[in-house]
Amino acid sequence: MKLAIAKQGETVSEHFGQCEGFMLFVIEGGEIKSEEFVESPEHKPGVIPEFLASVGVTDVIAGGMGGGAVNIFNSKGINVFTGISGPIRAVAEEFAKGNIESSGSICSHTHSH
């Protein structure tokens, strides 16, 4: 599986669409096998979910995420975990162990795109 965590500094970004980029982790057998940073593409409706799907992401973690992005991920079979906070590496390790559950935190504010 390939996990993307929305990054702000060394912690999980509170807002998916406004993060500086994503840490991508390849996870096999409950262990992190590789990791890399990718910059976030521009924040326009649908751009970031399409980008992450194109690089093979299977799971996404963020503090919060708008409903439109969640719907796009769901339509592509990508699992979304929101309401998550903390240091990125620690969150990735807990995810690899199966210890991360989504709180369902969806951003309800509107964007003027």
From TrEMBL:
State the protein's name.
Dinitrogenase iron-molybdenum cofactor biosynthesis protein
Signal sequence interval, chain numbering: none
Q: Which organism is it from?
A: Methanoplanus limicola DSM 2279
Q: Where is the Dinitrogenase iron-molybdenum cofactor biosynthesis domain?
A: 9-96
Output the InterPro entries linked to this UniProt entry.
Di-Nase_FeMo-co_biosynth (IPR003731), DiNase_FeMo-co_biosyn_sf (IPR036105), MTH1175_dom (IPR033913)
